[in-house]
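Notes from the 1:1 (GR / supervisor)

We went over the backlog. Supervisor wanted to see one worked example end to end before approving the batch request, so GR pasted a single chain during the call. The sequence is below; no edits were made to it. Supervisor asked that the structure be written out right there so they could see what the output format looks like.
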Amino acid sequence: MKDEDIINLYFMRDERAIEETNLKYGKYCKTIVKNILQNAQDIEECLDDTYMKMWKRIPPAKPLILRAFIGKIARDLALNMFYASKRVRRGGGVVNEILEELDECIPDNNDVEHSVLRNELSNIIRAFVNELGQRDAYIFTSRYFYAEDISSIARKYGMTRHNVTVTLSRLRKKLQGRLVKEGYLAS
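Structure output shown during the call:
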């Protein structure tokens, strides 16, 4: 079924919209969520929450790219679940690894003053990724948006783990330089 048809089902409040969304994007969402959450029960709960949030957001929202819309919802919900479980028990996993990698170029600030700058940071990162070559952009988003592990990225792009690690390190340094240039970080 086409995305427009699925969106129309949401607007008609037809429950088939969720079934069709699951048929078309279920595996995609599960991959995103599974990369962040390790517990099968949490993964299923997160996917259920994703479809509920879709139901609540459409309408009034009318997404231009349904895949991106649902992917972002799934990712945000999975990260929220991860952070909630992290508060309860400190754990490892790929998300902690990713956050440690990004710590060197993006500070973790949760106060009100810094929350105002989050939108600016998001725009800078989006522009940064858009300016990268296709392979680098895919590697960067695979790691830092989809939370894929280094081995998976290496297999996907026909690279060694070492090459992926070096590429990501170079991209983080480049991002850090961009953030300094934009005035977001002090040099």
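Supervisor's comment: The radius of gyration is 18 Å.
Batch request approved.
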